[in-house]
C-alpha cells in the first residue's frame, strides 16, 4: 500500500466533491494526544473519526510519570479520578553517591504533584472517554494507511484501503509517525537512543517512594516511577552505540549496580517482560501543512530524559482544540497561528531537554551542576517546573495556563 495517496488517481471522481460521510476531523492514532483531542473537539460539537491500530488495554514503552501540567489537564477533562495513579512530589536525582531532590514548584492554581500510572490504564481511560463522547466515532484495531492528497492539500486519510475525507486531518500516530513520513516531513535524527522498561511488584516490607527517582550513570540513565498496587516501573535510556550483548542482561546489571535501587527492589517480583522503543527521537521538518496538523510525538520528540512527553501531548491537544474551535470554519490561517503558539509553548521544555541530554554526555559537569542545585532548592524546583509543563525559564507560571483557561466540561466529565 502506497503511504501517500493521490485521491484523483486512486479513486477518480472522489476529489473535489464533498463526501456524504465527511467528518469534520479525522485523527490517526488513539494514544494520549489523539484521544484527548477527540474528547475536546467532540465536546465542542465537531464530528470526529478516531482510528487506533491497537486494541485496549495495550502496553506502550514509557516511564509512566505524568508531570503536574498533564495532571492539570486530566483534572480539567474530568478524568483524573478515572485515571488514578500514585502521586509523586518531584524528581530525585542520584549521581556519584549524592542525591538531589527537585520538588515541583508551589502553585495556587496548578497541581503540585505528578502521577505515576500504567500506560495500559491511562491510554484506555482516554480512548474510552473519547469513544463515549457525542460526535466521536472511535475505532480500535484499525490501521491508517496514509494521507489522501488532492491538489497539494491533505483532504483525508486512507484507512485500510478505504478513502475518508474531512476538513482537517490530525496525525497523532506517535514518534515513528507514518503520516509524517508519507508527507515527506521526516527530519534526520542525529542521535540513536533506546528506551527499555519493565515493571516490578515491591516486596511487602518495602515502602513506595513519593518521588520519581533518576539514577544517572556513565552511558545510561534509569527512571524509577511509583505506581498503584505497590508496582514500580524501571526504565533505562541508553545510546544504542553503547549497547553490546543482551539487553535483558544489561538492564538487570544496571539496576543491580545502583545500591539504593537494588535495596528497594530486594525481594521484588518482575511482573512484565521488557518492552523497548528505538529510536527515541523523532523530528519533523514541518508540524502542519494545508489540511493537516501533526500532534504529540508525531510533531517531533526530543528524548524522554526530562519526562514530559505525555504532558506535552495533553497540552498541545488542548491548544489545538482551542484553535480549531475558533478557526475550523474559517480560513486555514489559524493552523499557522497554532503552529507559532505551539512552538512558543514547547520552546523552553525542548531547550531544557537538549541541555540535560548534553549533560548526560558530560557526567563530571552534570555532577557539579547537580551539586550546585542541591544547595539552590528554589532554582532546582523552578527547572523541575519547566520540565513539568507549569513554568518557563523566565516565568513563574507558564503563559499557557493564564491564557488558555480550563477546558470545557462535557457530558463525559465524570467518566469512571
Ligand atoms: C522509554 C520512554 C520513556 C518515557 N517516559 C515518559 C515519562 O515518564 N513521562 C512522560 O510524560 N512521557 C514519557 N515518554 C514519552 C511519552 O511516552 C510520549 O511522549 C507520549 O506517549 C506521546 O503521546 P502520543 O499520543 O503523541 O503518542 P503515542 O502515545 O505513541 O500514541 C500514538 C498512537 O498512534 C497509534 N498509531 C500509530 N500508527 C498508527 C496507524 N498507522 N494507524 C492507527 N493508529 C496508529 C499507536 O498505536 C499509538 O496508540 C517516554 C517515552 C519513552 C519511549
- Portion of residues within helices: 25-40%
| Estimated structural class | alpha/beta
List the ions, cofactors and other small molecules found in this model. flavin-adenine dinucleotide
Give the overall pLDDT as a whole number: 91
Beta-strand fraction estimate? 25-35%
What is the helix tally?
Answer: 13
Shape: globular
Distance between the termini: 39 Å
Instruction: Give unreliable regions as ranges.
Output: 409-416
* Quantity of strands, as a count: 22
Largest sheet: 9 strands, mixed
Alpha-carbon Rg, integer: 21 Å
How is this structure best described in words?
The protein is built from 13 helices and 22 strands. The strands form 4 sheets. Strands 1, 2, 3, 9, 10, 11, 12, 21 and 22 form a 9-stranded mixed β-sheet that branches. Strands 6, 7, 14, 15, 16, 17, 18 and 19 form an 8-stranded mixed β-sheet that branches. Residues 409-416 have low confidence and may be disordered. Helix content is 34%, strand content 26%. A hairpin with a 2-residue loop joins strand 10 and strand 11 (153-159). It starts with a strand and ends in a 12-residue tail after the last helix. The chain has 416 residues and is α/β, with parallel strands linked by helices. Helix 2 runs parallel beside helix 5, helix 2 (32-43) packs parallel to helix 9 and helix 9 (309-327) packs antiparallel against helix 10 (333-360). The radius of gyration is 21 Å and the shape is globular. The longest helix has 28 residues, at 333-360. The chain has helices spanning 7-10, 32-43, 68-77, 80-83, 119-131, 178-182, 247-256, 259-264, 309-327, 333-360, 363-374, 377-387, 399-404; strands at 5-6, 23-28, 48-52, 65-66, 86-88, 90-95, 98-103, 114-116, 136-140, 144-150, 153-159, 162-171, 186-187, 193-201, 212-217, 220-227, 231-239, 269-270, 275-277, 283-284, 288-289, 292-294. Bound molecules: flavin-adenine dinucleotide. Flavin-adenine dinucleotide binds next to helix 2, strand 3, strand 4, strand 14 and helix 9.
